[in-house]
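Hi P.,

Sorry for the delay on this. The queue was packed all week, but I finally got your sequence through. Input first:
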Amino acid sequence: VVFNFENFNSGKIDLITNLRDLDYNFPVIICANYIPQAAIEAIQKMPKVVLIEKPFEAKDMWGIASKLVQGKKVNQRVFRRFYTNQSATVEKTSSGETINGQIYNLSRGGAYVELASGQVTAGDLIKVTVRLDKVSRAFNVDAQVVWATHKGYREGKPAVGVRFVKTSDVYRNLLDKL
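Then the structure:
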């Protein structure tokens, strides 16, 4: 089932809950222009329910729907994607190793990055530096690798999907490993 809403709020969560109560166990995709944080948190606890913020590209919807129908795991996609082509440097927090890459897909919550080498794995904490030559600035963001693949969809290089994290979360994670 695909729901298409202007705004998705906590009250509309009852629709999904009611479907599940009626033993409907198939995947559900919710498309909306606006999704508040409380609704995101509630939906993330529900199996086989995926949120997509509008607008999105048709290939994104087909990709998510295809994975759901095949029973594959779909990482929750909440924020709208912006397609770009920016040079970036990825620094592994644990070792300080740096890897050059390209960001092709960016959102408020994370990014898709293809790397020159595949030395990054799911769970790694990294710092991503994006150089914006047109405005002579560089931006640094802390992130955690959510998934990694040996062959990305854009250039066929190793690629990672990352979610942005707070600096305090990085420090807490590093201290937990001591």
